[in-house]
């Protein structure tokens, strides 16, 4: 098997370590050697003055949705158009160094279809964790079709998703911002309604996530055992509950989606004034304080954006990561939210998220060092997944 060596490059491993003037060798889809100095290989790439990092994750996206532009969102006219949109979006992420996304609801199970086609055809593209549609109550936030209004119905829908081999089960535990008639703080599911389904998903090795825009909703999700808490403006009490979960050996993660609220607050489109009106004074500071609290208490923070929700674009994960440095994380710690810790959330840390021998050759080459300035993450020259080039900057 032919091997490729990228040499004389700064390597940020994703474990908190940095190797100056290092070399990385991969064969096929696997890293086979990392070290200082020259390594033997068939093909060489000079990485002088450049930096390599693990491929990035965005842990909260909505494939197939479209960011509203010019006052309206673009709904596809048919399933074919929807499929083309999904593929187009998948091809765009690598421009920003993203090699894996955790999808957090898509119509028509479109993410599942695209995931399976890409994998079966061995097409060079991002890794997709599929969720299909979110589980919500009738008339609740994000509910586009059938609602699930009892513990039995939530459990039954969870089992249906497990049967279809979804990677992620998303529960909409509270109302939300982007559903016009929904009240963001309203609680949609109790602990008792969530826990049987969450337990079933855990037994079957599935990732669970909870949309939460209020503290009571976040509390219910934490107590029910949901793996990741999305959006919530956590306080000391809810973070303490998360710490207690961790101490019991039950992993839990925080996906802040800071950029989503920032984008709503800075939106000037008058046709979406209703959306901006749902935001409250101090929302950004409360969300940023939640990041600080989790960071201080050792709760893993995972880079997450709400991409394709109103005014959140593909690639905004790089701005999300930068916002974490304003919450007290160092540049290195901020990078880990989109690499090592994101891979742990997605149960992929055995194969990716860090640059180590035996793991997949998922990496990004940057023209400058993001440890000097986190905004250098935007200077992507090459993105590879499984040793295949997904994006390369033109000269």
Automatic annotation (TrEMBL):
<protein>
    <recommendedName>
        <fullName>Amidohydrolase-related domain-containing protein</fullName>
    </recommendedName>
</protein>
<dbReference type="InterPro" id="IPR057744">
    <property type="entry name" value="OTAase-like"/>
</dbReference>
<dbReference type="InterPro" id="IPR006680">
    <property type="entry name" value="Amidohydro-rel"/>
</dbReference>
<dbReference type="InterPro" id="IPR011059">
    <property type="entry name" value="Metal-dep_hydrolase_composite"/>
</dbReference>
<feature type="domain" description="Amidohydrolase-related">
    <location>
        <begin position="51"/>
        <end position="389"/>
    </location>
</feature>
<dbReference type="InterPro" id="IPR051781">
    <property type="entry name" value="Metallo-dep_Hydrolase"/>
</dbReference>
<dbReference type="InterPro" id="IPR032466">
    <property type="entry name" value="Metal_Hydrolase"/>
</dbReference>
<dbReference type="GO" id="GO:0016810">
    <property type="term" value="F:hydrolase activity, acting on carbon-nitrogen (but not peptide) bonds"/>
</dbReference>
<dbReference type="Pfam" id="PF01979">
    <property type="entry name" value="Amidohydro_1"/>
</dbReference>
């Amino acid at each position: 098997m032919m091997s490729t060596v990228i040499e004389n490059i700064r390597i940020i491993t994703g474990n908190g370590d940095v190797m100056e003037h290092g070399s990385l060798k991969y064969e096929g889809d696997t890293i086979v050697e990392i070290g200082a100095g020259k390594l033997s290989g068939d093909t060489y790439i000079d990485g002088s003055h450049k930096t390599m990092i693990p491929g990035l994750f965005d842990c909260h996206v909505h494939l197939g949705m479209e960011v509203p532009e010019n006052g309206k969102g673009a709904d596809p006219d048919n399933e074919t158009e929807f499929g083309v949109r999904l593929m187009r979006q998948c091809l765009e992420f690598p421009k920003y160094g993203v090699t894996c996304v955790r999808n957090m609801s898509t119509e028509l199970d479109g993410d599942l279809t695209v995931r399976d086609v890409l994998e079966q055809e061995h097409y060079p593209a991002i890794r997709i964790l599929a969720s299909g549609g979110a589980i919500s109550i009738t008339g609740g936030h994000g509910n586009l079709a059938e609602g699930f209004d009892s513990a039995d119905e939530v459990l039954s829908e969870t089992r249906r998703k497990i049967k279809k081999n979804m990677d992620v089960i998303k529960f909409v535990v509270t109302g939300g911002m982007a559903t016009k008639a929904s009240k963001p703080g309203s609680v949609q599911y109790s602990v008792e309604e969530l826990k049987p389904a969450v337990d079933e998903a855990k037994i079957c090795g599935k990732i669970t996530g909870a949309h939460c825009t209020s503290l009571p909703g976040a509390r219910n999700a934490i107590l029910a055992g949901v793996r990741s808490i999305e959006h919530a403006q956590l306080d000391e009490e809810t973070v303490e509950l998360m710490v207690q979960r961790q101490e019991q050996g039950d992993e839990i993660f925080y996906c802040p989606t800071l950029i989503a609220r920032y984008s709503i607050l800075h939106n000037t489109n008058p046709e979406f004034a209703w959306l901006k009106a749902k935001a409250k004074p101090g929302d950004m500071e409360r969300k940023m304080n939640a990041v600080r609290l989790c960071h201080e208490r050792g709760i893993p923070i995972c880079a997450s954006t709400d991409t394709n929700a109103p005014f959140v674009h593909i690639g905004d994960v790089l701005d999300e990561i930068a916002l974490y440095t304003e919450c007290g994380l160092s540049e290195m710690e901020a990078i880990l939210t989109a690499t090592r810790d994101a891979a742990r959330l997605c149960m992929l840390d055995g194969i990716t998220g860090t640059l180590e021998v035996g793991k997949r050759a998922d990496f990004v080459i940057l023209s400058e060092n993001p440890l000097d300035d986190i905004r250098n993450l935007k200077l992507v020259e090459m993105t590879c997944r499984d040793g295949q080039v997904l994006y390369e900057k033109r000269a």
